[in-house]
Specification:
A seven-stranded mixed beta sheet has the order 1-12-11-5-2-3-4, with helices on both faces. Strands 6-7-9 form a three-stranded antiparallel beta sheet, with no helix packed on it. With 508 residues, it is of the alpha/beta class. Helix content is 44%, strand content 10%. The longest helix is centred in the first third of the chain and has 24 residues. Its cofactor is Mn(2+); Ni(2+).
Length: 508
């Protein structure tokens, strides 16, 4: 195996430095302001003692000071509700990198070698920041309090135009041609789930969000296709429908499972539900499993409570008055029934909020790894999940070997050797057969991944991501030249999209 690229950190990533020095202080300042401004509502609606909120804002203010002045980081102290082992996992990782201080210790007594906010890999530190925020929340006994909820809710209300596009298009399909497994419609829903990522409150912390326009959804999607830097949608469609022709199809097995690892709440969650509805109604899957974060995370990330709130409140006529509210309520009722029937499922795991990348999935969460491997399709949403997929390393975007190394760990059920041979039942087009084979990296692949004796198949793994961090693999040299000519910071602007096959490894 080639040597892995170095991890992004304060020294080697200009965007990491910008994030730590400028974006994080803004996010923390906005959090303090939001908790303070909504203190009366929190008291009336949730019965929270205002004095606890006052104390919480003081702790977050101290955290902001520690971040901006590069103070030593400390061990965590609060146990997650229903996930008691999570604290031990976090602190064991902190101990392993040399963290010895607790929150009660005098930070001035730390040695210069003690890990600090600027000395660790960016991904680790950013996850630690949000776990520290929730550490303070839980320490105040606010076990069900989401300090970011007000911002997520206002983001949904400011996205009425996009919601109307999504839900009217979904309703139009039902009223006219029905839910046929059509590639163009398939692409529209995947692209909608991708571009709803523009609603990302941690990247655009200073902005008010009014996502979407007045155009119809397919027209909007066609315009956004110009921003795609990696687009494997056609290959995903081809592989997906090929699998439907054999024992891995819905007709051959009791369940065909699509797992969606969620990213943002608000309109993006609505887009994810629309995608799931299309997949079930078009018989491209029989069950959709949604994986949210188990605690409030990265400002706008989905929790199980966000899913519940969306169906009960966010898509109600009280929250969304007018015709859009009536339409939204209709779909909320439909989706509530799907959750009751088991066609839609929410599953929690602490793995999504640990500071590790997905190469550590099997070692840290065997049950989750097995569940994903037994899925037929796994969709990873958003920039944070993409960073974890590729290890948050400074890969060369147009280097095929770097793509192989970055995605090797997520070939769930597919073995990839160091010489680029993929051992699975994906068949090279030039050698159509159903038995196990090895094909060279870069060979055209006709992904069927099944045989009559083994209906269980390695899943298709896909990433939907709007680039908001300086990490990427799988670009063509021509595309890399194009986007770097447009801006050297292209991958941090939140303007360029990826629909990228992770497994099987595909080099079109």
């Amino acid at each position: 195996m080639d040597e892995l690229a170095p991890r992004l950190d304060f020294k080697h990533s200009a965007f990491a430095r910008h994030t730590i020095r400028h974006r994080w202080p803004v996010i923390l300042a906005q959090l303090i302001d939001s908790v303070y401004r909504n203190r009366v509502r929190y008291q009336e609606d949730e019965g929270i003692d205002p004095e606890k909120l006052k104390s919480l804002t003081g702790c977050i203010g101290q955290l902001r000071y520690e971040v901006t002045t590069d103070k030593p980081i400390t061990l965590l102290s609060s146990v997650l509700p229903n996930f008691s082992e999570e604290l031990e996992v976090w602190n064991s990782r902190l101990h392993a990198i040399g963290v010895k201080l607790t929150g009660k210790d005098d930070l001035k007594g730390a040695t210069s070698q003690h890990p600090s906010w600027h000395s660790l890999p960016w991904l680790f530190t950013e996850c630690y920041l949000y776990r520290r925020i929730m550490d303070h929340v839980f320490h105040h006994g606010l076990l069900s309090f989401d300090p970011f909820a007000a911002k997520k809710h206002s983001g949904l209300k400011g996205s009425v135009a996009l919601l109307e596009q999504l839900l009217r298009f979904l309703s139009l399909l039902e009223d006219t041609c029905g839910y046929t497994s059509d590639e163009e419609i398939f692409e529209t829903f995947f692209q909608a789930a991708l571009w709803a990522n523009e609603f990302d409150l941690s990247l655009h912390a200073k902005e008010e969000h009014h996502v979407g326009g007045t155009s119809d959804l397919p027209t909007h999607i066609r315009r956004m296709l110009e921003r795609m830097v990696v687009n494997d949608t056609h290959e995903l469609w081809r592989f997906w429908t090929n699998r439907m022709k054999g024992p891995s199809s819905v007709s051959f097995k009791q369940e065909h499972i699509t797992s969606i690892v969620l990213d943002n709440a608000g309109p993006e969650l609505v887009a994810d539900l629309c995608l799931a509805e299309f997949l079930i109604r078009s018989q491209l899957t029989s069950k959709v499993v949604f994986y949210p974060k188990c605690i409030p995370w990265f400002v706008s990330d989905v929790t199980a409570a966000d899913v519940d709130w969306l169906l009960k409140v966010g898509l109600s006529t009280e929250f969304l008055p007018g015709p859009i509210g009536v339409l939204a309520h209709t779909w909320a009722c439909r989706w509530t029934e799907r959750f009751k029937s088991g066609e839609f499922i929410v599953r929690n795991s602490t793995f999504w909020t640990l500071p590790c990348d997905f190469a550590e999935l099997a070692a840290n969460e065997r049950t989750l790894c097995d569940a994903l491997t037994q899925s037929d399709v796994v969709v990873f949403k958003g920039d944070l999940n993409y960073r974890k997929l590729v290890g948050d390393r400074s890969w060369t975007p147009d280097n095929p070997q770097h793509k192989l190394n970055a995605f090797r760990a997520m070939q769930l059920g597919r073995a990839v050797s160091s010489d680029g041979l993929i051992d699975c039942k994906c068949t090279p087009v030039s050698e159509i057969r159903s038995d196990s084979c090895k094909h060279p990296l870069g060979a055209p692949v006709d992904c069927r991944c099944h045989n009559e004796d083994s209906p269980s198949s390695p899943p298709l793994v896909i990433a939907l991501r709007v680039a908001k961090a300086d990490v990427a693999v799988g670009l063509s040299p021509e595309m890399l030249r194009k986007v770097t000519t447009e801006s050297s910071d292209w991958w941090t602007l939140g303007r360029y999209g990826f629909v990228q096959l992770i497994s099987p490894l595909y080099f079109g």
